[in-house]
Amino acid sequence: MNRLLQRQLKRIQLLENEQPSYNQWRSFIQLIEVAYDEADQHRYTLERSLNLSSEEMMDLNEKLKTSYEARLSSILNAIPDIIFLFDEDGRFIEIMSGRNEGMFSDKNEIIGKEVHDVFSTDLAENFLLAIQNSIKTNKLAVINYDQDVNGKKCYYQGRALPTELNINGKSTVVFVAVDITEIHQAQIQQRLISTMFDSGQEGMLILDERLKIVSANKAYGMFMRQDIESIIGESPLFISNKSMHSSGTSILDELQHDHHWVGEISGRDKSGRIYPIWLTINKVEDDEGDISHFVAILTDVSEIKKSQQELEHVATHDFLTDLPNRVLFQDRLEQAVARTLRTNQLGALFFLDLNRFKLVNDNLGHHIGDELLREVAARLKKMSRDTDTLSRLGGDEFTLIVEGLVDISEAAVVAEKIIQVFKKTFSLDEYELEVNASIGISVFPGDSKNVLDLIKFADTAMYSAKAEGSSGYRFYTQELSNTAFEFFSMEMSLKKALVEKQFFVLYQPQYEIETGKLIGVEALVRWQHPDLGVVSPSKFVHIAETTNLIGEISDFVLETCCLQQDEWHSQGHEKIVIAINISRKQLVDPDFSSHVADFLKKQKNAHLEFEITESAILDKEFVAIENLNKLHAMGILLAIDDFGTGYSSLENLKHFPLTRLKIDRNFVRDVSRDKDDEAIIRATIALAKSFGLKVIAEGVENAEQLAFLKAEGCDEVQGYYFGKPVPANEIKFGVKV
């Protein structure tokens, strides 16, 4: 029986084999109708559900397809390589790449063409060979090639691999072109570096983080006289052998602390000769910033040192006689004074001037005069000791420094020996010349500990001896200079001058030689003395320094110059440098730089240069250098004034933050008349250029001097030829000379 009818019979509770009553039949028929209605509803719901599931499945399939294509497209777009699909004849079937800029042409113009239609003959043959080899061997085939892309040469590695896809009965190959341009360039660079490393003249060394040798080139083996293979894994000699360098601490200590080292060490050639090597060691960091290696470079600086020594010799020795010149003489005198102070002995400075030398030059010619100077130098050198310093300062002036004296009488003995040198006539060409000299003597430290004073005192004594009219010598005495009363009187006058504002400032213009443009002025303080009239600094600066009045005078000059720059600025004039002379006393004052800093805080338009003398740096050298560095940090320019007349250490000049060297007027004065002065000027300019400094010459008074300075490469000039020191309102801005 139909299961639907059976369920309805159970609902009317009709027993088996029992005949239903009328009401039961009626009820049964109604239940049947309801059941069929319910069955129809269920069938409709089922059919609806089946229809919906089919649509959802189609939609899901579409989404899955879209998602797969999107993922595939994303993957292909992310791949920087170019993917070709070729058939066995080298025909382009498809091209895919995520880098449009890497495509050598529009892919729509390429698809359907063969490689010979697109590439050069050689490149097409390489492609076709790779395609056919891949199909033939059923393995990966690789080629390397280069191609111009957008005007740039690129390098690729092509990888061909057969597929199971057949198109029009032809086998296909996937060809992936990988851009290896960066790798190719890196390989070239690596080869270049390797070539440089292996064949370079400099010794090169690679150390690990433990400072053990990883690699070394042939030049290093020659420097250290070691076999390269035997030193791998060992520590370099220059680290383990402290005697190879003069550093206060070992190279190892400095590397562990600073991770770099630069300095000079000693090498030894096959003959045993020791020669200088410049060593540079620098760290190499990995990607995490940790030290992975050290690189050391060793350079033979023998020739450089030799050139430096030759340059120093030219700059410190007289061109004509090869004796020490002013520069070296000043250095030696400073050292001699220092030694006598340590040993409690005496020293003497002899200042010699040849009598009637000008007559020899004027009547017999400069060549005879030069020969005479050379012969005088030779005789004086022969009579002096090895520990003495004989110098020629220029012209016919010589100096002799003698140390280790017990009393002054020994200086008189030396003076008599000098006089004896001139007793014998000088045979020059066909001339027999009788020449003598006047000698001035200052004794140190008795007369002074100050080098400039000693020179001045000896010079004063020499003129006193010359005034006596015959060959002889004279010791310096106080009577030859100002008396103590005159000194005291000048001190009182200076104090009064400060109170009554008797000082004023003049400005001497400075010009650039090449353009004739005004580039600055030098501030020159003057004293309007009520009785003596205008007094120059040479008359009162020494007294001001001795009495500690120099600071107040300097403050006046500094303030006046800054106010003047403000006034020029307000008038619309271009900004120029004002050069101010700074005394030795100020430079060795530990508070000097901070005092200047406090003063400049109030100034808006200060553009200053401080001129210092060469000898100023010697006194309390560390204090002076510290002041120089602090002044430089404030933006103040620094110049050496009267270069060549005072103390100068060529070794240390490069360590000072200088911007200019000023050639002293004494050298400029005798241009065209004194070859030695010309040689000194040339050497000074060359020295300045080697240190990257500007050169300015003072005391230029004529066109001949200017032409010489310009020809020798001097940068800037000042002097009466361009303008005397004048009040501020007479400085001519915008006017070229």
From TrEMBL:
One Pfam family of this chain: EAL
Domain GGDEF: 345-478
InterPro entries hit by this protein: Biofilm_reg_signaling, EAL_dom, EAL_sf, GGDEF_dom, Nucleotide_cyclase, PAC, PAS, PAS-assoc_C
Gene3D superfamilies linked: 3.30.70.270, EAL domain, PAS domain
Domain PAC: 261-313
TM segment ranges: none
PAS domain segment(s): 68-138
Positions of the EAL domain: 487-737
Name of the protein this chain belongs to: Sensory box/GGDEF family protein
